[in-house]
Amino acid sequence: MKSGVDYVGVGIGVMILKDGKVLLHKRKNIRGDGMWALPGGHLEVNESFEDCAKREVKEELGIDVKPIKVITVSNDIAYGVHYVTIGVQAEIISGEPKIMEPEKCSEIKWFEFNKLPENLFNPSKSIITQYKDGSLGKHF
């Protein structure tokens, strides 16, 4: 498939679970504007998946997390870009989620897995779906 882009970006999507719910934020003024997504962002040069997950969640939500494990990988060609997103499961170790980047996020909310919003950002949808249905590592 020809995407019209000349590079592949690498990102981290952080799945934070609490009481059977997943934490999502609504994107604003960026690719996927108005869509719900896992917190996360671009992997920086020489940065581990764990450090990226911690940094991005702190920047976006003001909380400290402990990454537990890599749970899946999403390969998405959408929104005019090509990204490989590493899904990382994490738990909150301190703080309460709040909007730290109001120019990029309009809302944060905990969602039950059976009541997810329709407008999920593609990489987040892939990560959550694979986690929910137990298909991790089973599909191409």
Set down the secondary structure blueprint:
Blueprint: E1 9-18, E2 21-27, E3 36-37, E4 40-42, H1 49-61, E5 64-78, E6 81-94, E7 105-112, H2 122-133
Strand tally, please? 7
Q: How many angstroms separate the termini?
A: 14 Å
As for the CATH topology, it is: Nucleoside Triphosphate Pyrophosphohydrolase
Biggest sheet descriptor: 7 strands, mixed
Q: Spans of 5+ residues with little confidence (pLDDT < 50)?
A: none
* Bulk shape: globular
Percent of sequence in beta strands: 35-45%
List the total number of helices.
Answer: 2
Features:
Nucleoside Triphosphate Pyrophosphohydrolase, 18% helix
Structural write-up:
- With 140 residues, the chain is α+β, with helices and mostly antiparallel strands.
- It has a single domain, classed as Nucleoside Triphosphate Pyrophosphohydrolase.
- The chain has 2 helices and 7 strands.
- Strands 1, 2, 3, 4, 5, 6 and 7 form a 7-stranded mixed β-sheet that branches.
- The longest helix is centred in the middle third of the chain and has 13 residues, at 49-61.
- The two termini are 14 Å apart.
- The mean pLDDT is 91.
